[in-house]
Amino acid sequence: MKNIMVRDEVYEKLQKMKKGRESFSDVILRLIEGRKKRGIEILERYAGSLSDSELEKIVMEERRKFRVRSFDS
After folding, report:
1. What is the predicted pLDDT for the residue at 69?
2. I want to staple 50 with a disulfide (CB 3.0 to 4.6 A). Which of 10, 45, 54, 58 is the partner?
């Protein structure tokens, strides 16, 4: 088990998202898994109906939306 720190506003939002006796870890995992499923659903919806160049364009647009946070050592 690991400890993480989040801003107060993030804590409050996670607290509101909890269902029943769900832990914060459960909430975060649910959010992550939901995001993965949406990505898979999008790919399945377009599978076979787009040309390779159209699919590549969509993939590149989605990659640009993805933010990576860098950490100073």
Report:
1. 62
2. 54
CA atoms within a 13 Å half-sphere pointing along the CA-CB vector of 67: 2
Checking if the pLDDT of 73 tops 60, the result is no
Q: How far apart are CA 22 and CA 15, in angstroms?
A: 10
Q: Is residue 71 part of a domain?
A: no
Question: Containing domain of residue 38, as a range?
Answer: 8-65
How far lies 6's CA from each of 9, 51, 57, in Å? 8, 42, 34
Residue predicted with more confidence, 13 or 32? 13
- Number of domains, the chain: 1
